[in-house]
Write a structure and sequence with these properties.
mainly alpha; 3 helices; 76% helix; elongated
């Protein structure tokens, strides 16, 4: 008698793609800000400290938004 192997779950490639592409956004922000920060600093007449603060503030907001989006996603659940 041959045992039937359990059916393996199917991979949701759409979700995998969205998760992979969502990691590209922060990397692009770092690249764009790194390139554009000297011009932004000059146009806004910011010191190096304030330019760094602006750079940091953007990532703090992004981290808080990610946390909030994760909590919302957990509360809504998979549909």
């Amino acid at each position: 008698m041959t045992a039937i192997p359990p059916e393996s779950p199917r991979t949701d490639w759409g979700s995998v793609s969205v998760a992979a592409l969502s990691a590209v956004g922060p990397a692009m922000v770092v690249a764009v800000l790194g390139i554009g920060l000297p011009e932004i600093r000059a146009s806004l007449e910011l010191s190096e400290v304030w330019a760094g603060t602006l750079f940091t503030a953007i990532f703090v907001v992004a981290a808080c938004a990610s946390w909030s989006a994760g909590r919302l996603s957990d509360n809504l659940g998979r549909r």
